[in-house]
Amino acid sequence: MDFKEKLEGLTNRLKEIFPKDPDKQDPDKLGEYYETLRTELSKFAGENRKSLHERPEDRYTNAYSVCLQYIAQAEALDLLVPPNRNLHGWRTRNSSFFSQNLLLAGWESLAQCQRDTGNRIYRATLAHHLGMYALGDNDPARAIWWLLHTQADDAFDNVEGHGWRDLRSNFQVSSNLKDTLQQLAPEPSDWKSPAGFAEDVVRRLVLKHPEHSYLFAHQSSSIEFPISNPYFEALLDAAKKQDTSSQEKGDSLETLATYLFMLIPGWIPHQKVSNRTFENDLMVENLSPHSNLMADMLGRQFIVECKNWKDPVGVQAVGYFIHRMRLTHSSFGVLLSREGITGEQDSKAATDLVKQSFHEDNVLCVVLNEKDLDNLQKGNTTFRALLITKVSEIKYGKTSAG
Q1: Fold of 246-396
Q2: How deeply is 328 buried, as exposed, middle or buried, from its count of CB atoms within 10 A (0-12, 13-18, 19+)?
Q3: What are 269's strand-pairing partners?
Q4: Is the dihedral of CA 177, 184, 309, 114 positive or negative?
Q5: Tens digits of residue pLDDT in 195-252
Q6: Helix H or strand E encompassing 284
């Protein structure tokens, strides 16, 4: 059975799950419909992942056909429930809630296929539809996020797609942005690596071309962009590699950190920020145009240190980071250390210094370790929730549940 026949088989299965006859549709079962559709589509993509990169005679990849299946089912979900209908005791903002989650599932499912096979898998049209939903929701920051990912994915095929045209028409981006994205998307030696993903193109755009940072200064109703687990897994694998130099180990952890901080709307990381006295691995700015919880809690600028060491970071290195926080008048900072810091288990040394710094002069040094990163990858928490929890633990201690 060729790919086209398999796709027709999937379409027939989905028609049974999702009847077109309005009289047979039950909006109260929308969540059940969504879960079934997501499972079926993901199963199909996984079962056929080896052929998704193959190009038939026409100009579309097999992955494009799978994208269209996700989009068609998402649009069908839209028709099931009118705007503001009350579902299971809670009111949807609009009928696109489940539709957008289905497209996000498709974005991740195809990325996972790329991780599994090492083949280039097209995903741009899913990102474009997510960008269009964001425009419809009047969320410019989220729209820019997804439209940039659209053109970043198209850049791997040297295509000027809908993402670029919508960025130009809706946000008047500079004309050289397309060429910049193209330069940032050379064909990688390994499509399983972080460099093979659109997410990495957008990340490098922010770091290497700060002149485009204004794109991320728009207001957003989203509190956090969704993490791309296959891409984050690739970043984690790179950071955990043992057969690399100390410099490469440190750089890989910084790369991972820059992606995490970009997940908070308005946050822009800057790498290797230095003056005549010292250098900071990262400096993060909150460019959100309005006041928000994260700005109120953490301030508008803070510094980050990344330590990809084989042992916990000791009191001297932690003390020097806190010293740099004071020199830069940063009341908040993040120390990302895969092995954590000394004293995390027995409350002494570096851990005591972190607590002492807060109690004496209100300097908050949050420590993230490999366990925290693994919890992010497993979906046990989000980056925003993780930071808020860590801040609360320094200030007030752990809850009984923690």
Answers
A1: Trna Endonuclease; Chain: A, domain 1 (3.40.1350)
A2: middle
A3: 284
A4: positive
A5: 999 999 999 999 999 999 889 888 898 999 999 999 999 999 999 988 888 889 999 9
A6: strand 279-286
